[in-house]
Specification:
Blueprint: E1 2-6, H1 11-20, E2 25-30, E3 41-46, E4 64-67, H2 81-101, E5 106-110, H3 134-145, E6 152-158, E7 161-162, H4 170-179, E8 183-187, E9 193-194, E10 197-198, H5 199-209, E11 216-220, E12 226-227, H6 228-239, E13 244-248, H7 261-267, H8 275-288
Parallel strand pairs: 1-2, 1-4, 2-3, 4-5, 5-6, 6-11, 7-10, 8-13
Antiparallel strand pairs: 9-12
Length: 297
């Protein structure tokens, strides 16, 4: 299969590139200078997805597009909203147009569990949608851009991806604060509950999404539910550090827990890496000074 994958040097993207290279004819984009050659990778393509994409840089024939890239300014809102919308929405539209020109049959989009309204119950794919900021809204708009495209749509909605090599996002930030003895303030008690997914399980969902005949959205969550307080406590225990933890009153309530029944039933992916094992690996990597693989999707 000839595949174009965006965000190839990002956190999830770098893991996906290594998993897919060799078994597919893989072309991967990078916003900066192309990394060293990777065995099995057809080509690194230098392209800024926040700008107008030059289609002449992209493969003329494709079977699938896997859009994993996200804006580096995802946390810089509202100042970074223009960049976020450009990468999440406008680049999706441009990549979709190129996929159709190149004869692709499927488009796999990395969205986010943040498109849902928070709920005390696990969220299935048909749960109410209520993105709470411009980043989440742009991901939902990207999903909608794929409607009526004629391509097979595989939309993955990951819930708090984490793992070795991550230096930003929720769990990486908690690990850093515990290890560096920085204060951690949690909204509410015990804080938001979720089922974070290890990057290896997220990549397994991407691989399955390239094989499936199914169409539509799939939640990608881990096998265990934990609150923010429980995550911090576990990180502290595994790192042998006492977290500096406090709580403030939260506005609103509800959790973000993925119901992964469709992931298991239609994609055949059962998330397998538990929180203690995944957090232990991430803490070990942080302490060893491993490479920053960018932000997750």
């Amino acid at each position: 299969m000839r595949i174009l994958i965006t965000g190839g040097t990002g956190f999830v993207g770098s893991h996906a590139v290594r998993a897919l290279a060799g078994s597919h004819e893989l072309f991967a984009t990078t916003r900066g200078q192309a990394p060293a050659e990777l065995e099995g990778l057809a080509e690194w393509i230098e392209v800024d997805l926040a700008a107008r994409i030059d289609p002449s840089k992209l493969p003329v024939r494709l079977d699938a597009v896997v859009h994993l890239a996200q804006s580096s300014r995802y946390a810089d809102l509202p100042a970074g909203a223009e960049d976020v919308i450009a990468v999440n929405l406008e680049a999706t539209r441009q990549l979709l147009a190129h996929a159709l020109r190149a004869g692709a049959e499927r488009f796999l989009l990395a969205s986010t569990g943040g498109v849902y309204a928070r709920s005390p119950e696990p969220l299935a794919e048909d749960a109410p949608l209520a993105p709470q900021n411009a980043y989440f809204a742009s991901k939902l708009d990207a999903e909608r851009a794929l409607l009526d495209s004629g391509l097979q749509r595989v939309i993955l909605r990951p819930f708090f991806v984490y793992g070795a090599g991550q230096r930003r996002m929720l769990i990486a930030g908690l690990i850093r604060r515990v290890l560096e003895a920085e204060p951690i303030v949690i909204a509410g008690e015990p804080g938001l509950r979720s089922n974070p997914v290890h990057v290896a399980d997220a990549v397994a969902a991407i691989e399955a999404g390239l094989r499936t005949d199914a169409d539509g959205a799939f939640n990608v969550g881990g096998p265990e539910v934990a609150s923010i307080s429980q995550l911090v406590a576990t990180i502290g225990e595994l790192a042998a550090r006492e977290p500096r933890l406090s709580n403030v009153e939260a506005d609103g309530g509800g959790d973000l827990i993925a119901d992964v029944s469709r992931l298991r039933g239609e994609l055949g992916v059962s998330p397998r890496i538990g929180l203690r094992d995944g957090l232990r690996e991430a803490i070990r990597d942080w302490r060893s000074g491993g490479d920053d693989l960018g932000s997750s999707v």
